[in-house]
Every structure is written in structure tokens, then in C-alpha cells.
User: Fold these one by one.
Assistant:
Number 1:
Amino acid sequence: MDKFYHIVTYGCQMNVHESEKIAGILSELGYKSCPCMEDADIVVFNTCCIRENAENHAYGNIGMLKKLKAKKRDMIIAVGGCLTQQIKKADDLHEKFPYVDIIFGTHNLNKLKDYIEEKRKRKKVLIEIEECDGTVSEGDKPFRTSYPNAWVNITYGCNNFCSYCIVPYVRGRERSRKSENIIKEVRSLVAEGYKEITLLGQNVNSYGNYGADIPFYELLDKVAKIEGDFRLRFMTSHPKDFSEELAKVIASNRKICHCVHLPVQSGSDSVLAAMNRRYTSSDYLKKVDILRKYVPDCAITTDIIVGFPGETELDFNDTLELVKKVDFASAFTFVYSRRDGTVAAKMENQIPEEICKRRIMELVELVNQQTRKHSAKFVGQTVNVLCEDYDGKRGMYQGRNEYGRMVYFKGECDLTGQFVNVRVEEANGIALIGKTV
Ligand code: SAH
Ligand code: SF4
Ligand code: F3S
């Protein structure tokens, strides 16, 4: 009889790709994917802890499984990812949800097969969290679920220790894969028909500093020179490591999308210093100028945090000013969330919730204005879209242009995985709507 798995993923693209690796392990064990938790023989929660609401979201969903587990006693529930990797969180989780069978961390995902086999033999709960031993994961066999896009890790971990951020504590020290392994992986993905490759790392620009043989701009250049019909993206770039050489490489090869995610976090120099970002707002603006000098049409997107401890009205205004100056194509905006174990968690002057709420609303309003303006620029233009999927609700295909804008359009036959030219007729917030030409 067939056995089924269901994976619930929270958090960043890194986690989305790691869920594909978990799916690969489960497929090797003979499980097949199923869309409903109720039908699954094993449910895996791949968690995130970047902000409190990401944690609460996972807790809520794991809690809802209690009734199902009481009915389906043989169902295995496993929880892994960044949440469990935090100090003491695995034990807390076990206390809160004693019916969870396997708790694993970010550094032992590739042992999940052994844990499941052991769990099937012995009924005991398995709590297995390991510390980072510096290993660079190779030879994973992900079960990819996002054709025509494929994610490729180039670095793991983070050494930046931004004072608000939990990632360095749960993902370990930064380490890079060897360039030849990355190039080999991309070559085979392109040969398999993947049309968009995204190189992944917490800070791709520092690839080369920790164990790699070449700097990031050289890696990007080499990957872009791989033969075949594909687009290349990378994320995330830390502004302090964004170099002129990198801007030149982006400009030199049309396979590299003119779209760079460059998280600024704040426009205030004192907040940036307290965040340990190691650049000032004018350093950031210089990087933007360099990028626009070589790639004038580049869509620059960002992440911004409001309500960092000690953020004054003046600091917040500096952020608004910087957003106006850069004119971001779009931005992810967050209210600061206190994370135990980080340096900022111990800072005095945590900002009250009402102030954070007002600031985020003001910022979102400004960002939305800019996003709408950037979308409106495409109306009347023909854009090249990589068709990703069919959106049943809208009755339209969907895909992105090279600037990362979602485009919806009608099509006669299955266009998934094809590059299509679409004439944009309408802009709707962050999305564009048009017709194939
Ligand atoms: N490594 C990437 C992304 C890290 S997480 C980078 O450095 O850009 C994605 C975003 O979450 C960050 O850019 C930051 O804006 C936000 N973030 C991280 N920790 C946070 C916290 N404690 N509270 C609110 N937002 C946070
Ligand atoms: Fe977190 Fe900073 Fe590392 Fe990004 S660079 S993961 S924000 S510590
Ligand atoms: Fe979340 Fe971990 Fe990514 S904390 S944002 S899943 S690296």
C-alpha cells in the first residue's frame, strides 16, 4: 500500500529548498507526496524563528494535529528547522506537544532517514539536535517542486551577527560550497530543463571568504556562462560586501536578471550601527549608485525593520527619506521582533507596540506608492515572462519578468516552463496583467 508524506514549510527560500531536500529523503523511503495532512503517514514541519509570529504560526499548526494524531496513531509527526535549533526549544516543544515523534535541527536534516527508520522500530520520541560541525552539505538529492525554477545553495550559515537576528545562532558559521560542485549542479539542472536558477545564501556576496576557491562575482560569471536557455538570480546580498566587480558582471551577461535584493534594514546611521550592519546610509546609497551606473534598469528591492530598540522619530524619518531616495521596486517591511539570545534582545528602550504599528503603516504606505509607480511603468510594454504555473482561480497563467514582477496572462495551451512575450495592459499593485503577443 502507498505511504504518503506532507511537508509544511515556514520561512525563507533556504527553507523552501530544504523542504525539497526533505521531500527527496522521504521519496527514497518510498513515500509519495499528498496535498492533505489528513491523508499523510508522515507530516514534517520545517520551521522558522526569524520573528515571533513565524514561531507562533508553527506552534498553532502543530497544535492542530493533536486530534488527528489521536485518531491515526501510526502517523509520524516530525518537526525540524530553525525553531528547534534554538537553545532549549526542542525540549520546550516536546513538553508542549508530547505527540510529536521526531524533533531534529538544521544541522542533521540529512539524518532524517535514520530517524524515521529508528522511530518505526521503537516507539520512543526522538529528539536529535546537533551543533554545526562546519560540514558543507554535498550530494543531496532534492525532490524539486518548483519547476521551472531551481534553487541552488552556494553558502550555508551566516557570520554577520546583525544584532537583531537569530540566523547565525541557528544556522551556524558561514561556509561555502566549492565552485565546481555548484557549476556541476547548475549544468545538470539546465540540461534537465530548468529555466531559472537562483543561487542561495544568507549573504551571497561573501561567498569566497569562507572556504570557497573564487569570489562571488567570478562564480556568478562562470554560472552565467553555462550554455543553455535560462535566467540567473541570486539572493541575498549584504550591502557591505556588494562590489563594483559584481555590478559589472551583472551588466555583462543578459542571463543574469536585472533585479537585486539589497536589504537596507534602516536609513538611520545610529540604528544601522546598533544593528551591527557595518555600513552607513551613505555607504548604502553609494552601492546603489554603483549598481545603477552599470545596470541602469536594475530593480532594487529591500528589507526594512521598524521599531528596532532605541529607534527615534528622527531615525524613522531617516528610513523614510532613504526609501524615497532609492525608489525601491518593492520592499519587505517588518516590525522588529525580539529574539532571545541575540544582542538586541538585551538592549534597553524596546519600542512600544503602538509606535511600531504606526511606523510600519506609514512605511508600508510609502513603499506601496513606489511599488505601484514601478508597476505602472510596464503598462503598454512587452515583457518577457517565464511562465511558472496556471492560476486556476484567475483562469490565467502566471510568471515573472526579469525584474521579478508577477505577470498574469491568458494562454491557449500549457505554457509552463516557457519564456513568453506578454503585452502588459494593466498594473494592479505589485502584479501586471496582459496578453501574450
Ligand atoms: N540573510 C538575509 C535575510 C535574513 S532574514 C539578509 O541578511 O538580508 C530576512 C529579513 O528578516 C532580514 O533582512 C530582516 O529584515 C528581517 N529580520 C531578521 N531578524 C528580524 C527580527 N528580529 N525582527 C524583525 N525582522 C527581522
Ligand atoms: Fe541575519 Fe544579518 Fe546574517 Fe542576514 S546577514 S542572516 S540579517 S545576521
Ligand atoms: Fe527563518 Fe531560518 Fe530562514 S529563521 S528566515 S527559516 S534561515
Note: The chain is about 35% helix and 25% strand.
Number 2:
Amino acid sequence: MADDKKVTIVEVGPRDGLQNEKALIATDDKLKLISLLADAGFTRIEATAFVSPKWVPQMADHDDVMRRSTRRNGLVLSALVPNEKGALSAIKAGAQALAVFTSASETFAEKNINCTIKESIDRFKPVIAIAEQHGIPVRGYVSCAVDCPFEGAIDPSLVRSVSERLIAVGCGEIAVADTIGSATPDRVDAMLAEVLQAIPFDSIACHFHDTSGLALTNVDIALGHGIRVFDSAAGGLGGCPYAPGAAGNVATGRLVRHLKSSGYEIGLNEERLATAEEYARLRVGR
Ligand code: HMG
Ligand code: MG
């Protein structure tokens, strides 16, 4: 492993953190949050989602958010996109990376993106072609990598096969996601062991929601497998409107403190991060 102690945190607060909030957050407040996060030194921020405004009204200002977001050297602003329409708009607005999303559960794919897993991956092909033309990376999320709110426990071999298909169509990184935050460390271990048979550890990121308070233990399991990219949200906000029971992502500050106490290098300014987290909580009234 090249740099065993260096961990990258992908801040997904402006997207996953806010998408589930019922009260609309003002665009200027989202921009302020992204600016505070940029000040804290993140290298990757998922700024917004170019999804249907009918499906997720909170992300309807995606164009404005992406166009007006703070830009910094060394910071990559990414956008979640479900299809070609989203990819074209995101890149036009200045997205520097894209993230496509499917699921290891057919029922969740249908509820969240209104198609089968296969149809979703077919939709990603033009997304990846467009990204390649622009020289920008594409991450592929696999939701319900451990449990599905509708189907229950998910067989790790399904997570592996969906991940393999995402890599085959051109995703450079796979983010396995515990969408409803119910994963236990033993099941995360089993899922990762299976996925790692097909995908190298340095192409995998972990996205843990923290419903059961086990996210940090699950991070430790992933670290043990060599994984060094983790998603989190400022203030522990987050959830998916189409995943009943999904609570917030693991909070970025907690994740940073946990990793640092185990000797990992994160490269963030914790004081500025605390300011960003406070702002995030304040804006959503927590
Ligand atoms: P659909 O209704 O099947 O699509 O939705 P459609 O092709 O029939 O289009 C319907 C309307 O949406 C049309 O507009 C399209 O133009 C428009 P109309 O003619 O009715 O005015 N449309 C779009 N508008 C803006 N941007 C687009 C776009 N595409 C179509 N990209 C669709 C299919 C995928 C669009 C819809 O289901 C959707 O947007 N779903 C997104 C759901 C979502 O964002 N969920 C939360 C994010 S995923 C998540 O949180 C999990 C994650 O965090 C990991 C984890 O924790 O598991 C990533
Ligand atoms: Mg999520």
C-alpha cells in the first residue's frame, strides 16, 4: 500500500446532507456551506445532484449551486447524476467529477431511480462517454450494499456483481453504501471481502450512514481491508428520501477525530471544519 496512513474524506454534506431536508435550504446558504468546507481544506466535495426536481425538490437549484460554488486549487467539486441529461447539465455548470448511482437491490433501484439495475447501468454508458470526452472522473455508487429498506439483507455477491459491472462500463471508483445505516461490522467485513475479490482496494470508497451508531466501527473494518476513501457529511446530516429509515451520514468531525486518533493523516483544518459543521446544523435547524 503506497501511503498507508493517508485517508481522503469525500464531503457529501451539500448533496446527501441536504437532499432529505423537508424545508428548502436557500441556495446562498448551500454556497456558504460549500465555501466553509473549501476553507477547511477538502479535496473532494459532492456539491449537488442533477436529478429530477420533481423527485428531489431540495436539489432543484443544482445549476446555480454548481455554477456559483467556491473554486480552489486542489478541490474537486462533483455532482451526482442519474443519466445523460444530468451529466450534460452538470458539466455545463462546471462539475469537475460525476457520480452515478445504482443499487444492489432491484426494489430500491426502482423506488429511487425508477428503473432496473441493468437499465440504470445502461443509462450510465453515455454519462461515462461524456465524462471521458471532458477528462473528468466518474464514481459509481452501489446503494444497499448491506441492507435494503424493502428487501432486507443483501447478498454480498450481488454487491460484487453490480460493482464489477460499474467498473466494466468505466467507473473509476466504486462507493459501496450502507444506505440505511443498519450494517453491522461482521456483515460489512463479509461484503467488502467479496467485493475485493473483483475490485482493487484503492478503487473502493465507503459511504456509511450512521443510523445504528456503528459507522466508525465499520470504517475500521474498511481500513483493515486497505480502503482509504470515506464519505461523510458535515454535522452528520443526510439520508435518502426514497430509503425509509435512513438517517444521517457519519458526521465529518467525528470521522476526522476517529481517524486522527488512530494515526491517520486527513489534511483538514479541524477548527474550520467545526465552523462548517456548526453552520450546516444551524441552517437545517439542529
Ligand atoms: P423518471 O420519472 O423515470 O424519468 O425519473 P423520465 O426520464 O421519465 O423523466 C421525468 C422527468 O424528469 C422529465 O421532466 C425529465 O426531463 C426529468 P418532465 O418532462 O416531466 O418535465 N429529468 C431530469 N430533470 C433534471 N435532471 C435530470 C433529469 N432526468 C430526467 N437528470 C430519474 C428517473 C432518474 C430522473 C428520477 O428517478 C430521479 O431523478 N431520481 C433521483 C432520486 C434521488 O436523487 N435520490 C437520492 C440520491 S441517491 C442516494 O441518496 C444514495 C447515495 O447517497 C448512496 C447511499 O447512501 O446509498 C448516493
Ligand atoms: Mg447516502
Note: The two ends are 40 Å apart (CA to CA).
Number 3:
Amino acid sequence: MKKYALEDELTKIKGIGPKSAALFEKLGVKRIEDLLYFYPSRYEEFEEPLPVRELQSGALKAVEVTLQGEPVFKRFKGRVMTTVIVGDVTGNIRAVWFNMPYISKTLKSAVHYVMRGNISAKGGMMEIIQPKLYSRQEYQLITGRLLPVYHLVKGLTNNAVTKAISAVIEDVEFPEDYLSLKERRELGVCSLTEALKTIHFPKNKDDVIKARKRLVFDELFTFSVKMQLLKSNDKEHKNGYVVSEKNSEGGSVLEEFKKSLPFELTKAQSLAVEKISKEMSGEATMNMLLQGDVGSGKTAVAAAAMYMAVKSGYQAALMAPTQVLAVQHYGKLSPMFEKLGIRTVLLNGGMSAAKKKEAAALIASHEADVIIGTNALIQGKVEYDKLALVITDEQHRFGVKQREALSLKGTEGEVLPHVLCMSATPIPRTLAIILYADMDICVLNELPAGRLPVKNAVVDPSYRPKAWNFIRNQISEGRQAYIVCPMIDENDTLELENVTQYVEDLRSTLPPSIRIDSLTGKMKPAQKDAVLEKFAAHETDILVSTTVIEVGIDVPNCTVMLIENAERFGLASLHQLRGRVGRGSNQSYCIFMSGKFDKDTMKRLEVMRNSNDGFKIAEEDLKMRGPGDFFGIRQSGEMDFKLADIYQDSEVLIKAAQKARELSEEELAEMSERFPIHFML
Ligand code: ADP
Ligand code: MG
């Protein structure tokens, strides 16, 4: 009999009282099982000490040294600095500590120390900054080991988390493995118990890769099982909002809509609206993903769908991810619908209480047919009359819970609204059909005719004056420009300084008549909105930004995108950024400025230079990232997985989905009970 069961509270562990348990809970860890699945965010590696001569600045390294002089104290900017020269047979280095005057007492001459710290070069001498001290024996014990580093909250140390996990792992009833030995062999994965032990305490990098592979499989398999369950659940929902394809005179509603447009729909758009029309008039409720590259005209497809729903006597809602985008959609769609006798209202979190109330009344009374806003639209207080269609912009998926919450709002009881999710993230088809197995997928694979492809250039920073001059010329022709500035990791003050400095440099170089504004991640939403609105209204010529300029922003007059430190972005982000230009009738340009010219960087930027096609870029991305020797733990950007990366782990994803598809209904139901819930769908 083991001491701990998976469902036990953490307080069962010696040394964890209610106080620490409350801290763990902040990290989402409530029970013993959660602790097992609380993976390290990274590992700290203790390498063999290096000879002093081989040290290079800029890395965390260990050296084995003895004192070569006496410790010296200095006051430096209000801090006490202790320095001492240390060395081995190959050379000397200066060790530096801040605010640790007592360190000199522990330092003894003729004793061998291992010092581990960041190396930097200062005035011709290498320094090791704030090094930790170990005796030779102490360091030998941890050499070559990987120690787990966990996400923490204030009051909880890494040591405390490590100790708790270690205690549990020694004496816990591990979850039963749902994969048999034979299945594990076929899949090339280790047992669940081994994986859970090893992910916390690996002996080496190979161990991490092995453990990770198993846990990634579980994540993707659980996900695939849920997809299968959703699919069978959806089949049970009859279409309660039948949208008619014909108008009262027997003509086609769709044709009616097309006539009202100032342009012809592309072939891809036409096919998409026909498919949507069929789904909304069919037996089952629609759940569709509309994938279309940036600029492919997804909004027009959304408008067609909303028009059809309204013509059948229902309401339709369009949800944008930000207020700026909601306002942008409202500005474009409301006049268009008004001409067709359809009333549109805007409902945004930022609106005054009175305005919100007014909008809510129009929605409840069904005076408003089309409702545009942010996710304020689905928050409890809004009552709809007959909401038959929900469209989300720049989102892959609309949560099951959200969908069910809206279903209660129909007058016809438990009826689910049709859902259309629009996304500009191109995911290769092989993966999309797995990740969106519960949805119909429709792809807009062409751009409206007459669009000029964006011209691309990959350059080094010495080209910057020319780039600025180029921007200046475009502005004198009446155009605008975006500049995306270097991002500095996890340091907001630096980030801000960076943009401020960049803007100052620009101002001192360009004529004062050029209006420059900036946007940073630190700004409040209202501030951001104001900056973007000014830019959209052409009250600003150049917008310098650190944050990725919001997806979906449509300023057709902006023709230049200059991306500084392009090497730091992934291909998908670069493509999204570039998608902000090339949206009007003027020729647009994208300048990728790279500070690095190694083979990998060049290969990636070459892809960007040679193609404007998001799906092609995604395929290339998939090939380049491939499986292989991925080491470590990283949050995946694409979806909410703890470990899995749909690109990196695409082969595992395909296997996991295959296995989930082979399950019978009973097995499926059983599986869904069995897994710890790690995602919200
Ligand atoms: P996205 O798919 O990136 O959301 P939008 O819906 O914002 O693209 O459309 C981009 C631009 O193309 C808009 O200005 C829109 O009016 C225009 N547009 C959409 N469809 C067509 C079309 N068939 N012909 C010409 N212009 C179009
Ligand atoms: Mg859009």
C-alpha cells in the first residue's frame, strides 16, 4: 500500500500545511495528481567546470579556482561590491558579488572552490558575476545532472516544490497505464510511470526527450479523444435554426446579397458562402472553421452568412478579439447592412453603461438583427431574441461551454446556434483535419483579383538609413508605415526604452512634418485603441510598435512594414505582420531586417522572401521544425497544450489521432473519464 493516492490533498505531504497548500493552489495544483503533472518549466544543468582560459562572456559557467588575492570592498551606486581575483593554472578571473559583504568571511585561501555564475568581460578582464560557491565534493555530486526549475508564486521556493514532488514520487500509487506494453512498443514510448518520474528528475537530456515524448502522446491522445466525443455529441444536435436558402419570392438569398456588394466575390469566397448556406439549412447545427490567408476577404463571407440568417428572421453576432477590431468591423458592416434594411448594433466592453444598456435593449427586442462586439457579447447579461449564428474573428474555436451558454438564450429551448470561426493562421491540412476534427473546414485559398503581391526584402542593419529613407518617400506619396521594433524578453522597462529610443532616432533623422506614434505591450487597452484609431484615420504616418501589431487590423493605406530583428520571430508571426500591408490598391513592401545571418536564419527569411502564401509558409515551417532532437519544455503557441507543439510533434499527433479514431463508443466514453483534464475545449 502506497502512502499517497492521486486524489489526496497536498496537506497529506509532510511539511505542507494549509498555507503552502494555498500557494500551490495558485499554481493550479490541488491534489497529489496535479503535482505529478506540474511539469518543470525548464532544467538547470550543472556542467563540468571549465578551465578559466576557455571562458567566454555571456554564458552561465562553472570554474574550479582558488583565491589569488584578498577580497576588496567598494561602494558602487549605493551597493556594496565585493571582488576578489581567483584562478586556476590557465589564468585568472575576477569574482564579483553585490550586497554580500559576508562572503569574504567564507572565502579561505588555498581551498578549491567551484564557482558558478554569469561570465562577462570587463576592461580586458573576465568577471564571474554573483557566483554560487560549492566545495569540490558538493559540485561533483550534482555535475551532469539536470535540476528541475518550476514556475513559482511568491512565498513558494523551487526547493519546496522539488521536495514535495520528490516525496510524492517515492511513495505514490501512479496512475494506471492505459497503453499496454505492446502498444507502447509500437508507438515507441515509455511507460506513464517512468515518464512522470523522469520529467521531474531526468538524468540527462535523452531522458527528458523520452519522458516528454510519452507525455506529449498522452496530451495529444486525450485531445483526440475529446475531439471524437465532441463530434458524436454534435451529431445529436438537430438544427433548430433552419436558415432558408430561398427568399419569399423563391429567389436565392445569396444572389440577393451578392448583388449588394461593391465587388464580385472570388471563387473561393463563393464556394465558402455556398457551403455555409447548405450547412445552416441542413439537418445538423453548423460548426465551421473558415481558414483564409490574411487579406483573403473573410469579412465578406461573414457578412453573407449573417445576411442569410437575418433574412430567415434570426439574429447574428460577430465577435472580434479586440475592441479596435470590433469598431473596425462595425464601421464597415453597419452602413452596408443599413442599405439592406438590416439594423446593426455595437456592444463593446469599453462603452458607457448607458450605451450598453441601450444596445442590450435593442438586442432583446430584436430591433437589432446584427450584433458586433467583443466577448462582451456572450457575457451573462446579454439577452438575445433569436440568436442563430455566432461568428468569431481571428479565433480557431468557439468553446463548447460558450456555445451551450448561448443555446439557452434561444426561444426554442436547448438549441445551439450555428458557429463560424474565422482564422488567418494557416495550419497545414494534414494537421488541421485532426485539430479541428469536430468542425467542417473551409479554406479561402485565393486573394481578390487585382491585389498586388507584397514586395519583400531581407537586409542587414546597415541598410537601416536606406529603409528609413524609403519610408520617407512613401509617406511623401501619401502612404503610411509600420515599424516593428526589437522585442526584449521579459523586461518591460527595457522594451519601453527601446521603442522610445527608436522613436527619438527616427524623429531626429526624418523631417518634423512626419507624424510618428508608438505602441507598446505595457499600454492600457484604451490607450492602445486611441493610438490605433489615430493611425487608421491617417493622423499618424509611422507607427512604431513592439507588440505584434494586432491581427486583423486593416489600414489599406499603409504600404510599408519594416520588421527589426526579424530573426527573432517565427515564420507564422512574420507572415501575420506582413499581412498588415498589401491590403489596398497601392504596391506594398515588407522589409525584414535581420541582425543574424547564420544558415538557419537565412533559410527561414528566404522562405518569407520567396513566398507570400501563408499555407506554403506553414508547410515549410512544418518541414523545418520537424521532430528530431527537440529538448526542453516550451509552451506551445498554437493551442493550449502543456507540452505538445503541433508542429514539432506533428508525427505524434497523427499517431494519437489515429489511435483515438480506432476506439469504440464505449472505449471512448471510458477514456474520457480516465484522463486528467488539462484543456478547455
Ligand atoms: P481578411 O480575410 O484578412 O479578414 P478582409 O475581410 O479584411 O480580409 O478583406 C480585405 C480587404 O479586401 C477588405 O478591404 C475587403 O473589402 C476587400 N475584399 C474582400 N473581398 C473582396 C473581393 N472579392 N474583391 C475585392 N476586394 C475584396
Ligand atoms: Mg479579418
Note: Residues 45 and 677 are 31 Å apart (CA to CA).
